[in-house]
Design goal:
single chain, mainly alpha, 2 strands, Arc Repressor Mutant, subunit A, two-stranded antiparallel sheet
Amino acid sequence: MERKQFNQLMDRLSKITWLLGVLATPIQTQARASLLSTSLRKKMFSLMNGKRPSKEIANMADTSRQNVDQFVKELNKAGLVILIRFGKGKTKCPRRIRM
């Protein structure tokens, strides 16, 4: 692929990414409002930086790991967090997506 073609492709991908972000923003805003309905959920969400596993978030928020895991599943489905692989194991740490 030539440099000019590559640049054109990257420009198009940037435009597509921007458009998808514009379309997703109202949906994410609505999901965020409904999912962050309690102080516990807000605290858990604030602790999701991509470096803390669910167990650590649960300890810091004074709740169960199962509660955190369920909440992460809901947030991930709504597109508000992504899961980052931690170390070499199977552990994945949730990270908030910036809006």
